[in-house]
Amino acid sequence: MHQRSHIYGIMGEFREPQELLHAVEKIREAGYRRVNAYSPFPVEGLSEALGLKRNMVPFICLLGGLVGGVGGFFFQYWAAAITYPQNIGGRPLNSWPAFIPVTFEMTILGASLAAVFGMLALNKLPQPHHPVFNVHRFVHATSDRFFVCIEAKDPKFHLPECARLLEQVHARHIAEVSDD
Amino acid sequence: MSASQPPFDSPEIRRLTPVLGPGHTYGSVTDKISSIVLTRPTSLGWYIGFLISFGLTGVLTVAIGWLVTKGVGIWGINIPIGWGFAIVNFVWWIGIGHAGTLISAILFLLNQKWRTSINRFAEAMTLFAVACAGIFPLIHTGRPWMAFYMFPYPSTMGLWPQFRSPLIWDVFAVSTYGTVSLMFWFVGLIPDLATLRDRATEKHMKIIYGMLSMGWRGSARHWHRYQSAYLLLAGLATPLVLSVHTVVSFDFAIAIVPGWHTTVFPPYFVAGAIYSGFAMVLSIAIPLRKAYGLEDFITMRHLDNMAKVMLATGLIVAYGYFFEFFLSLYSGNKFDVFLVNQRLHGPYAPFYYSLILCNILLPQSLWSYKLRHNVPFLFIMSIIVNIGMWLERFVIVVISLTRDFTPSAWGRYTPTVWDWATFIGTIGMFVMLLFLFVRVLPAISIAEMSELVSETSEDGK
Amino acid sequence: MPRSSMDLATVRAKLQSKTGKQYWRTLEELADNPEFAELLHREFPRQAPSEWDDSVDRRDFLKLMAASLAFAGLAGCGRTSEQYIVPYVKQPDGMTLGKPQFYATAMPFGADAIGLLVESHEGRPTKIEGNPDHPSSLGATNVFAQASVLNLYDPDRAQTVTKFGEIQTWSLFVESAQAMAAAMKASNGEGFRILTGIITSPTLAAQIQSLLTLFPKAKWHQWEPALGDGTREGAKLAFGSYLNTVYRPEKAEVILSLDSDFLGSGPGHIRYAREFSRRRKLNGPSDTMNRLYVAEPTPSVTGATADQRLPLRATEIELFARALAAKLGLGGSATLPPAGEKWLEAVAKDLQSHKGASLVVAGEQQPAEVHALAHAMNAALGNVGTTLYYTQPVEQRPVNHLDSLRGLCSDIYDGKVETLLIVGVNPVYTAPHDFDFASKIKFDLEKKSKRVKNTIYVGSHFDETAELCDWHVAESHYLETWGDARSFDGTLSVIQPLIAPLYRTHSAREALAAFGDKPGTSDYDALRARLSADELTIGVDDNWRKWLNDGLVAGSAFAPVGAVLKFSPASLPAAKTTPATDIEFIFRPDPCVYDGRFANNGWLQELPKPVTKLTWDNAALVSPKSAQTLELAHHVAWRGGEHGKVYSNVIDIALSESKVTAAAWTVPGQADGVVVLPLGYGRKKAGYTGTNKGFNAYAVRTSDALWTASAPASVIKKTGEDYPLACTQYHFNMEGRQILATGTLEEYRKSPNFANEHAELPPKELSLYKGEAEFPYHRDKWAMAIDLNKCNGCNACVVACQSENNIPVVGKDQVMRGREMHWIRIDRYYEKAKSATNDPSSYDESLFNPPTFFQPVPCQQCENAPCEQVCPVGATLHSAEGLNDMTYNRCIGTRYCSNNCPYKVRRFNFLRFQDWETPQLKLLRNPEVTVRSRGVMEKCTYCVQRINNARIESEKYNAPIHDGAIVTACEQACPTEAIVFGNANDPNSRVAQLKAQQRNYTLLGELNARPRTTYLAAVRNPNPELESA
Q: d(Cα A39, Cα A143) in Å, to the nearest integer?
């Protein structure tokens, strides 16, 4: 058992997204929960197979949009009507119709920034190193191979059993993922 | 090629996969696209092209240097024509910058698969076009070193920008558009950068692409959030891209100058932008697919579709021209009516007629299937449309200003050599950036292409 | 213009090789070097930057100049004389630093002296204003008076005495003058000749007289190139002696001008314009107006103001006068051109029905006969004593100038002249070319001799004459000297200096005195001595301060003299006429550079001429029809275009064994078969600004045809070349827009609101911000009203504004690019003109004699200013008093405001137009107005600096600003009181009352910009009989 502490998990490699999906389903049926999959492109149905819930990105995006829009308008109002009121061509201090375009742009800007940086934050990116990179075949994960990884943190994790399970789902290669 | 796959050359497959040439696997797609960047030797043509465009960028630098030394007086502008080439080029470039985001955002939302192979460099083109456009509002001011007054920063005098001015709206619209397009483009690039990282052979390449890809490893959980973020960006970029040229059109529509003060401007500016944008995408895509043998990825289907979009938007623009005239005449406003006459019979009439020729008459040829599938013809047509759209901006900006309310103040405008140098210089800069782009980044989205492969192969089942 | 082949390095090298002492001599030497001369006479005026491609050289060159002038320029500061120049240890009485002081003085000009108040900042005269107490100006000025302050600081002024171009000291000059005098004493001054212009200064005349008594055989000649002898000789012909005529247009109901521009030029014209405009004042439909008939060959401001105008050839004017005299029963007869017949009837009737309240004015350039006829008619109409009166001449010694100069020339030719003293005139340039004055005085290389042993020239510039004379005494500016002068009605005006001479210059009187027995006397003493000698002005010591304060000797105007007519039109010999097929070439002083004396004045060079709107050049003016027959055309350039650059056919005019090459320009309303050759251009040696501009009309002006020459059309030949002319307003058609509201008196009486009948003013509730409270302007609400019924387009306001507001001169090239900087422009429109351009190709009858109107356009100070809304940085915004303010240091120069300005009154510093190097020009600046640099927008501010001064005063005494306390520069200069500025909130202010009139209308009111500047419609009073035709 002492090796276990050095193990991040065990990884199986597949050639086709369908194989990957099938494998993930089987592994989940076997009761493993700390499972993750890696693919060069988003595989349809994979999230459901892994049982991922709705993520936070849309909410963060909405928040950003609100901050941008409300902030944008009231900043203009404050600048034009409160802190330095000036008679510009006889227009009223609060020429709100003229403030709409900037308000709109600020909404979009806030929302987009929130969406992108929210996504990166939730994904904990940038993250230069990760144990899966230790698997030398993992370089194909970004071009034409598909991987599933049962992580050691999983309470049910037991190396030989996981290996056997991966064989059952026809993994082309099986590799231990060491933790360092 | 795994035996589990049906042969790609079977007719129904070819019918079903018209946006991707036959015989491709994830591997082959990845190899082909990434090889342009990683393995392929840099061709002599690339060097020549790059050097020429680099030289033109030098011209731009000189022109701007002299401008800052002497003042905008080196240009042809005067009273009453306070805006000349600078604003014409600004609007033109911004317009071109619309296609990229449009393709990647709107077509994405509409789930148009054919966009996949063109959106990457279309987005890049957008960024570069916006970069070119951004130069002009800055340097056209009399005191460029004071241009930062246009940004809302806490100054010691407690002054803020004047938010009723369309120019301030421009500042926000263009900078927002630039930022969002950049994020959109970069987010799309992340997986491909990871691919390059993993496929690169030299160490320094690995390091550079490794840094850029931020440790992306294609984790399903990441893809999960990534996809919603990308979708949201697309959703946000769509109204944004429409708003940007609307705001640009406000520069004119909000002013009271006859020929500017028109409610029809926002929609037809946007249509015009898409029009010129797609023309520019074609002008780039056609040489690109030829040079790097990407005919399988950028297929006739793409060219055909883009030609159709051009045709459609071209018709909207024609409608815009018509209604500009109709409203002027219908309103009976003597200044507007006079301006219509000026466009048709005034000193600048030839520009107006050539504009009609380039933007409305010639593009009608795109109704013909044969011509749409004649690549050289498409290329020429795309260039013509770009010229036409430039003329449109010239007509709007200059002709309107030469003949406004007070006849005693009427004048004329002719660009000087410095106007031309600045314009051609930005074109040089644009092309130079494109050359750099195709050399160091995947011009086509690897991840999305692979996705396409998988989907098509499923269809194959 | 080709780049000079000689670079600055060489020049500098040459200069450094010399010591400072020889500096000027060095420059003169260099000037002989063609490249350097070329460098000197670059296209651009000193104040303006040259074209971007060669301005580097120019800047260096200016630095060289500046270096040489710095000491002189600075030494000039302060009114105390140089040796006392110290910082104000003890402040002079009555001076508060930062507060301008005003001194009364006068500008001698032709047979007139214009009474002035000069604004002085810490001892620097900066701005010329009219002296309200002075009869010749009544507080107004003209372009020449306004611009004369720039002459004072003209860096090209001669700065010291020179002999053969080498620097000499004044004392050396006095010594040699004394030596010459001593030599002449023996022969009683046989061979001593003095040549001057018109002298109205008693002191100067007395000085000359003392010389004449000292040298009994000496002779005094006079030559004034731009004032005709007709006026003088006409009086002699009519009354047997020289008399001065003073008009009272205010008293006249009907005025007939026989080719007289009495509102725009000539003695007393400022006063006449003021009086005339008072009779154009309309408070309501019931008011009456005078009626002005003008018969003239080429449009003048007077002609443009006329109710009834008849284009006649110059010689036909005399025919018309004779015929009219006959009609009025004075005998004589003449056959008229058919055009005049109907007119004659109407005019005669009108004049006769207004006996005693009519006035006939003959033009300066018309022959004596016309003047005599005018005198006769005025007498017959009983106008003498009511609408005009006669006085003794204001000229100290009236003579026939042509004969006088001819006499001098023949004497020189006969070798009778030994010493020639030329004072203040430039005969080498202005003398009739058949006199060939240059060859009379210049060193003959064949004979190795000079006809005149000693030639001494007293002049402000080292010009054409100075070049050929042995001695050149640099003459002081009138703002640097003590003196006196009589104005058009004889009023004795006192000239007091505003500043010690900037350079080693001396007054004409001092130069003359150098030859006399008391060479040392100062102008000051001479003036006081002269005044005390005058029986009219007893008690100098008691009145001295008052005279200086008033700028004139009260009650010194000449009393009317009875004039007995000794002349009957019947006795006149047959009039000399021009064959119908021939072309008449007429010479006229230029409205901007006059006879050439103002050629080096950048303000006047860049000033658009009232009718043609040309700048920096003169052109041969032809009527549209003649242009068509001669196949002369313009075409608008693509750069600048209608607002700047027009290419014009170049023609050769071969006249009287001489030839000029000129650009042709068509002028609607000019008589057919007449070509106008404006004088004053084509200077060869005027200075940096004025040299080689336009063509020299003097070159074809001969003594036998001084004002009108006739020749067959064949003398005009097209060279086939085109010449670019800088024209600030080429487009004169209103395109059916209500830019100008005009009507006849009848129309006005029928519908007093005619000006606003067709205005489409949008209703107030038509607003995006309906219900929003509008900005209140509680305290003061500055506004301006411009009465188009009074404005005669004389341009005084334009120069006044340029002087008050430190407006730069940009140079011909920039004007041609449409970048002139005038804050107020005067638009000229031809009513009913059909064709959009005045190309001969598009010639039609509507251009034969179109009603002409002028419209001064400053910033309209809109309450809903379109410019403010679009400024991204809020650099232009509204003050609490509703001024449309420009914040120069906030402006980043997007020019969006200018694009959005419907009136196009905003001006942009496209390049660095302001001259920051030349030290003299620094002295000129108005310290109360920011000097703008490159890249910022500027425009009319309603002279906000004057408003603020008044505001400060009012707050000091906690009193409201009373109406008239603030006078803008344009309003101040206006001779016709057409511009009125004031507080629109005060119902009793003049401006409020004008705006209350029904004639009041808003320029482009349909745009709802709500300008503070409004216009009062022009009302003309044509003769119904002539209109019915």
A: 8
Residue type at position C697: A
What are the CA-CA distances from residue C580 to residues A44, A91, A114, B311, C337 (Å)? 100, 64, 88, 68, 10
Q: Do A86 and C878 touch (CB under 8 A)?
A: yes
Cβ of A90 and C773 within 8 Å? no
Q: Does B199 touch chain A (CB under 8 A)?
A: yes
Long-range contacts from C925-930, C-beta under 8 angstroms, 24+ separation: C925/C126, C925/C806, C926/C121, C926/C126, C926/C127, C926/C803, C926/C804, C926/C805, C926/C806, C927/C98, C927/C121, C927/C126, C928/C100, C929/C804, C929/C805, C929/C806, C930/C806, C930/C888
* Residue spans per domain, chain B: 20-456
CA distances from B297 to B104, B113, B116, C807 (A): 16, 12, 9, 64
Q: Which two tokens stand for residue C690?
A: 């004025």
CB B275 within 8 A of CB B389: yes
Count Cβ atoms within 10 A of the Cβ of residue B330 and give its class: 0-12 exposed, 13-18 middle, 19 or more buried: exposed
Q: Residue C294: exposed, middle, or buried by beta-carbon count in 10 A (0-12, 13-18, 19+)? A: buried
Q: How many contacts, defined by CB atoms under 8 Å, are there between A and B? A: 198
pLDDT tens across the length of chain B (461 residues) = 333 444 444 444 344 445 666 667 777 888 888 887 777 788 888 999 999 999 999 999 999 999 999 999 999 999 999 999 999 999 999 999 888 888 778 888 887 777 777 888 888 899 999 999 999 999 999 999 999 999 999 999 899 999 999 999 999 999 999 999 999 989 989 998 999 898 888 899 899 999 999 999 999 999 999 999 999 999 999 999 999 999 999 999 999 999 899 888 999 899 999 999 999 999 999 998 888 888 888 888 889 988 999 999 999 999 999 988 888 888 888 888 888 888 898 889 999 999 999 999 999 999 999 999 999 999 999 999 999 999 999 999 999 999 889 989 999 999 999 999 999 999 999 999 999 998 888 888 888 888 877 776 654 33
Counting one residue from A and one from C, how many pairs have CB atoms under 8 Å apart? 38
The interface residues of chain B toward chain A in range 295-354, judged by CB-CB distance below 8 A, are none
Q: Is C718 helix (H, G, I), strand (E, B) or coil?
A: strand
- DSSP E strand boundaries for C236-343: 244-247, 254-258, 291-296, 308-311
- Tokens, residue B448: 């999305």
To the nearest whole Å, the CA of B410 is away from the closest chain A CA by 25
Fold designation for B20-456: Formate dehydrogenase/DMSO reductase fold (1.20.1630)
Chain C residue with CA closest to A87: the answer is C878
Task: Give dist(CA C398, CA C239) in Å, integer.
Answer: 15
Q: In this structure, what DSSP letter does residue C182 have?
A: H
Dist. CA C598–CA C590, nearest whole Å: 10
Of C204, C213, C175, C225, the closest CA to residue C507 belongs to: C204
pLDDT tens figures, C456-490: 999 999 999 999 999 999 999 999 999 999 999 99
- Residues of chain C contacting residue A91, judged by C-beta atoms under 8 Å apart: 769, 864, 869
The tens digit of pLDDT for each residue in A87-107 reads: 999 899 999 999 999 999 999
Which single residue is written with the structure tokens 């910009």?
Answer: C1009
Strand order in the sheet with A146-151: A35-38, A146-151, A7-14, A173-178
- Tell me which H or E stretch contains A17: helix A17-29
